[in-house]
Amino acid sequence: MRGRAARVRHRRPGTAFGRRRRRPSRRVPPGERSRPSHVGGSRMSGPTTGRIVAEISDLHVHFPIRHGRQRLLARAVDGVDLTIHEREIVALVGESGCGKTTIARTIMRLEDATSGSISVAGVDITHVGGRQLRTMRRDFQMIFQDPFESLPANSTAFDVVAEGLAIHHRQLDAPARREAAIAALAACGLPEAVTGRRMFELSGGQRQRVAIASAVAVEPRLLVADEPVSMLDVSLRAGILRVLLDLRERLGIATLFITHDLALAGVFADRVAVLYLGCVVEQGTGAEVIANPAHPYTRALVEVMPKPGGRRGPRALLSGEPPNPTERVTGCRFAARCSLFRALGSPERCTTEPPALRSIGADHAVACHFWDAMAHSTAKEKIV
Fold first, then answer.
1. If you write DSSP's letter for every residue of 231-268 in order, what string do you get?
2. Segment (H or E) for 298
3. Most buried of the four, 183, 229, 320, 376, by CB within 10 Å?
4. Cα dihedral angle (152, 242, 185, 224), rounded to 10 degrees?
5. Residues 266 and 345 in one domain
6. Which helix (H) or strand (E) holds 110?
7. Domain containing 237 — which CATH number?
8. What range defines the domain where residue 340 resides?
9. In a 10 Å sphere around its CB, with 0-12 CB exposed, 13-18 middle and 19+ buried, how is residue 170 labelled?
10. pLDDT 10s digit of each residue in the chain, 384 long?
11. pTM for the whole thing?
12. Within a domain: 170
């Protein structure tokens, strides 16, 4: 028995997926422990009381493009503020081209921020690079949308997971690394028999589980999930979502969940942020945003959500075209397509003053000058 105990102590995986499930201690930045959640101004924190894990402040991401001889800037992200707490799932919702994936890639430092800041675990990562960035990547990991493109086809499931452990947990010897990799795969619903299979031998759902295991095996503080179930059959999606929820409870991971599906975000996430053309237009708990949408764009998304019995609500048609992302908008970006704007007689304020994200409730904020008009049933009937 003494020899067996000695062997267990020697292996010491040092990860949550090994025999010793004790997370290595990390320095908590001063003031982070007692930082309160808040609502107001242009930022809104969720109802959770855990430590702040990720904080995005006034993030702008612009891309230079050429139009003939002209050099223009496409404003993909234009002033986003977002806070994510420990164990919290925040869903970023919007249609294609609104800037969701750009925000995710900028957090992962795959794109450079034009201005603003991104902090993870109390450290500003906006401009770090080189060895410092490689060291810090353990704290933030990403699950990509397409597991067929993001994972090497000839690598085994074990190799994919063990690679991250070899980079971010160098103290692990080979047996400990193998134990941790197998445990991470098991936590994602993959038995040990799958560890030796190559990616081309696995289904899409199995590949995505491998991708999740690879991301969480290194014990990140923040998990960025970019449409993690959109490429999967409907029958497989619930299983992947259950895995993410289980890992949240087990590891306390904060998650930024990117999706175009507001109905899914409403039931899966603790908090929802609705994005339109690079700006957050509404934010709150999923239940509150869906039950009482305060922004006309959010209401349009809610109206086309499937209803019980497979029915859909009345179609809320958005007339007009979104503004060109290379042109600077002086007022509200949604005004040209907004039914509330037309119902109120095209107020000048909507075309001259950009609306700030303001608190309208304990867990609800909106960027609309005339949001209160949405609260009246008669106005709702006119708008939709």
1. TS-HHHHHHHHHHHHHHHHHH--EEEEEES-HHHHHHH
2. helix 296-303
3. 229
4. 50
5. no
6. none
7. 3.40.50.300
8. 293-384
9. exposed
10. 444 444 433 334 456 676 444 444 444 443 343 333 333 333 444 445 579 999 999 999 999 988 778 888 899 999 999 999 999 999 999 988 899 999 999 999 999 999 999 999 999 999 888 888 888 889 999 999 998 899 998 999 999 999 999 988 888 888 999 999 999 999 999 998 999 999 999 998 999 999 999 999 999 999 999 999 988 888 889 999 999 999 999 989 999 999 999 999 999 999 999 999 999 999 999 999 999 999 999 999 998 887 766 565 556 567 777 778 888 888 999 998 998 888 889 899 999 999 999 999 888 999 999 998 876 644 444 444
11. 0.83
12. no
H-run or E-run covering 160: helix 157-168
Distance CA 239, CA 133 (A): 33
Per the CB < 8 A criterion, the answer to whether 65 and 326 are in contact is yes
- CB 302, CB 293: distance < 8 Å: yes
In this structure, the answer to whether residues 264 and 135 fall within a common structural domain is: yes
